[in-house]
TrEMBL record:
PANTHER family reported for this sequence: PERIPLASMIC BINDING COMPONENT OF ABC TRANSPORTER (PTHR30290), PERIPLASMIC OLIGOPEPTIDE-BINDING PROTEIN-RELATED (PTHR30290:SF10)
Pfam family, one: SBP_bac_5
Domain (Solute-binding protein family) ranges: 6-121
Protein name, per record: Oligopeptide ABC transporter periplasmic oligopeptide-binding protein
GO CC annotation terms, alphabetical: cell envelope
Keywords: Signal, Transport
The keyword Protease appears for this protein: no
Similarity remark: Belongs to the bacterial solute-binding protein 5 family.
Species this protein is from: Candidatus Thiomargarita nelsonii
Length: 203
């Protein structure tokens, strides 16, 4: 799974399987290769989130799955938003894992990858610094060819979510629609709302 939400411009098609997908067998093998077979002697992990029912349930799910599949214990902590933002700034209270969400301003991968994870120009909550990633997203915003841009973003996503696994994308929020069969002109948009002026009704 990637960070940029398909099907916006530059997003990787999910069929390309970029990113690390759920696979307990491979995860156990990687864990053993790192010296923690069956999760033995794995350091304690802290997972923090800002208080909300959704975030709490998501954190519990992550905790449960890590314990069930890898025998890794995670301590979950919740904070009010003000405290949470202070915790994320680092120092001795910096968490090992934390949740964050993102909603881009435009339907273009630049507003996900460059704006969030560029080491010098992005928000970069995780303090990540990968020069190859930075060069790819910098180059992508300088060209207009959509095919070339998509390839650059695919390579950047591969670094972010697979090669270095700097983040773990969990899900994309969706907005459900119920459209009557006699409403014509409605179509799925990857970003933003519909233009009612394009609709028509059939008897």
């Amino acid at each position: 799974m990637t960070f940029t939400r398909p099907p916006v411009l530059g997003a990787v098609d999910p069929t390309e399987k970029v990113g690390i997908y759920f696979d307990p067998i491979f995860a156990k093998a990687w864990l053993a290769e790192a010296g923690y077979s069956e999760g033995k002697s794995f350091p304690q992990l802290f997972l923090v989130h800002n208080s909300s029912e959704l975030h709490s349930e998501t954190a519990k799910a992550v905790k449960t799955m890590l314990k069930h599949y890898l025998n890794i214990d995670v301590e979950v902590r919740a904070f009010d938003l003000e405290r949470y933002l202070k915790v994320l700034k680092g120092g001795p209270t910096a968490p090992h894992i934390f949740r964050m969400s993102w909603c881009a301003k435009q339907p273009d991968a630049d507003f996900w990858l460059h704006e969030v994870f560029h080491p010098d120009k992005g928000i970069n909550w995780i303090g990540w610094n990968n020069h190859e990633f930075a060069k790819l997203v910098d180059k992508a915003r300088q060209i207009s060819n959509p095919v070339e841009r998509k390839e650059l973003y695919r390579r950047a996503e591969k670094i972010l979510t697979e090669k270095e696994a700097a983040i773990v994308p969990l899900y994309f929020k969706n907005t459900p629609f119920m459209v009557k069969s006699w409403v014509k002109g409605w179509y799925h948009k990857e970003f933003g709302g519909q233009h009612i002026r394009n609709w028509s009704l059939e008897n």
